[in-house]
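Why does residue order matter? Because the sequence determines the fold. Keep that principle in mind as you read this record.
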Amino acid sequence: MRAMKLQSLARGLSRQLLGPRRPYSTVSAADLKFGQPLHETHPHILKVGQITPGISAQEYADRRAALANSMTVGSVAVLQAAQLQYKSGAVFHSYRQETNFLWLTGWNEGDAVAVIEKTGPSLDDYIFRMFVNPKNPREEQWMGYRNGVEAAEDVFNADEAWPINAVGDELKSILNSARLVYTDIQPASSPRLGHLFSDRKFSTTPLHSVMNNLRIIKSPAEVANMRQAGQISGRVITNAMRRLWTREKDLHAFLDYEFTINGCDGPAYIPVVAGGERGNCIHYTINNDVFRDGEFILVDAGGEYGTYITDISRTWPVSGKFTAAQRDLYEAVLKVQRTCVSLCRESANMSLDDIHRITAQGLVDQLQPLGFNVSMSNIDQLFPHHVGHYIGMDVHDCPGYSRGVKLKAGHCVTIEPGVYVPNDDRWPKHFQGMGVRIEDSVCVDDDSPFVLSTEAVKEVADIEALRD
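Structure:
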């Protein structure tokens, strides 16, 4: 195992730019300024040895070693950080790092390039290089602090680090000697690196499929972060059910605020906060209407913790009490959801596609006694989406990874059956306009599911008791 450099930040960060009159050797690491939290500067966020909340420097090193071990000797992996996105003019969105880049490095700044070169057959036979923005007091006054080149080595454990402006010459030399280059960089969308890949003299292969295989099974630390997000988010959603809401935007604001003040980094995505028939729109996010008595509220929301997300959907009556029709439709979906959550165990030998087929048949079996003229041939008219997807650092994690793969311990998925009944005379009148979705985030274990969002109540009796 590689010896980690992150032993003494007070010593290792002494090269940071501090000003002309302060001897580096006398400066505490806690007095230095970086673009993202460190334990020394933000002990309320990070524990000793962590690069990001819950994830240690050692785990990041192990991830890079795993990538290198998946590559052929003499090959190179090149990743580019996400660019800052602008809403308009000088108004920018909150920065979100490219997921694979973040998973390998923990680096959460833009205008950076990471390079991993496989130099030999052993696990530790690789070189990790970074090209990043150097410290610059004038620019940092306007745009905030930066980590800097020295921190790329001393904190983030790069073997070699250079200013980003050196990437053209240095990376060109590395690429020209490579036997194979793993990358997802598209020349047309990369002003800084596009010229290196447009007229290349080296062979390339997509990196994302290799990364998906590495990322799809979550480590205990990753699961712990997702459980933290699920616990906080579940409690917030349960607390939302206790209150009488009149406007969608008020409930939206409550969720975002409560996720944050209770320990999440913030919301994991724009929530669905839909009243009545609007719950039939799967990704309804405008959230600008009002709730009416006799309708359902459908919420699809979750918080993010330590760059890991949770994804929860709950449906409850505006009044807090189910009508007979609401109870029948809700219980039909809940019964299927319970069954499908129970299948999220390695011993069941199921894939998400297998569970989807069981979900569809289960909904048919539950809806027919309620008067629905429904079968496997038309259930997609009421249940148009898949029962689940992978989750992790992204809401739809590891895009492109097959839902046909048998679930194994460490896979994290959603289970979210739903029934969406339009105002159409093909369906029983008393259910028309109702949308019900019940979704939990689940980590697959050997013999039982580990529900990450269990604090969000979903039994009819529990929901109704919240208003008593």
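Residues 45 and 445 are 29 Å apart (CA to CA).
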